[in-house]
Amino acid sequence: MEFFDKLAEINKVINEFVWDKMGIILLVGAGLLLTVLTKFFQVVRIKEWWGKTVGEIFKKDGNARKNKEHGSVSQFQALCTALAGTIGTGNIAGVASAIWVGGPGAVLWMWVAAFFGMMTNYSENVLGIFYRRKNKNGEWSGGPMYYLKDGFGGYKHCKYIGKLLAVLFAIFAILASFGIGNMGQINKIIINLDSALLGGVDLGYAFGDVKWTSVIIGVVLMIIGGLIILGGLKRIAAFAEKVVPFMACTYILGCLVVLLMNFNIIGDVFASIFRFAFGTSTVDAVTGAVVGISIKEVISQGCKRGVFSNEAGLGSTVMVNSASNAKEPVRQGMWGIFQVFFDTIIVCTMTAVVVLSSGYIDLNTGLPAGNTTDATLVADAFGKSFGPFGAVFVSLAILLFAFTTVVGWSHYGTKAFEYLFGEKAAKGYKVFFVLMIISGAVMTSSLAWDISDTFNGLMMIPNLIGVVSLSPLVIRITQNYIDRRIKHKDVKPILSYDEIIQSEHEAAVKKELEEELQSVKS
Length: 522
Fold this sequence. Notes:
72% helix, globular
């Protein structure tokens, strides 16, 4: 026990340094820098990125869902798989925790983090497509490992530093995949199902404090997860393409029902978000003591939960976006903008408004009110409108959100493992990853989750070094796209670091442009 206590202490120190003292500054700072360098692309070019993402999804002959290329997935499948990995418990429990600790004002800082995070995610995807390559199985392999090794490592005197950073990122990603991408998510599913649906089911204890119900659910999830994960990216993407839109739309619809029922106070809800964005304090009527939330706490909670939710800057989602059939780096970069927008600005905001309109957060003081806790806040908020079904609705939402996160993260870990040990060894990783699902179901300590959270944060350091150092290349690729696609200048496209891939994609892009022009004329 002494060893684990000491390990927990060490992890806490590292975690606080990575996330509280350095991480948020690095993430928001990088996003701000890239936003300025791209001349506020997410705002100025909103018509372009919206049309090439959402517009393509709903266009009758759009290319977003099409894919005939071996070893890749469609752009829409890449988006759904990335969202599968990012839309998780952070969109529900994470948002509730941010408001509970940081007050309504934390939501504004969540938006700020997402606004700048759009360009971080955009830049990651641009670099991911530019530096990707085909593995021996004919599948695309890309991610921070490759742009650190070949991009950052291409700078003078940075060859070995780039290789080291690539290896460190891959190690951190693998370790994070087992915890925050697997066991932690499964453990959340078990806890929520037990409290909302299985409270009256008593099958006894399998061993120690572990219930038989936890073991049974864990085995079922392991079998389902194995059928999807062991089928490779194609099967993961097919699963994500069907489940993610359904779960996201169902959850949003549930939130909209609550909002309509509380429509009369929606104005007060948004007013409180802006009013308490810089902290709040009030005098306790009983003790006379001044209580409240500091500005630092509001900003920290909002930014942290925003980053937790969309993972912009961590480099995780690049590994699936790099498998897209998109030939243009900027095209996949724009999907990265939409991913952050949908994940945080839409889904997280929906959760926040449901919570703030429930009455469990005092809109006059910004502090918790009523008989609830941060752990049950969202379920209680839905319960006010849906009755007993509220807790069931939230529990089922967490089941889908968390399980799809596990499926998405399995690919991230696989690609990181492949980078270090090769394609054959990556098959063994998948099997082990699936087996670890049962560990999450029977886990009674939060130490594994806490340690993996630290490794999740450590991923950002090498990734952001790569993204920021290669920002001149991102700007050049972006300007090249604007000149060709928007200003219609006759310039050579910048598509890949590899001359062979560049040549192949150049011909494909030329053909695609001709088809688009023909479509416009007809």
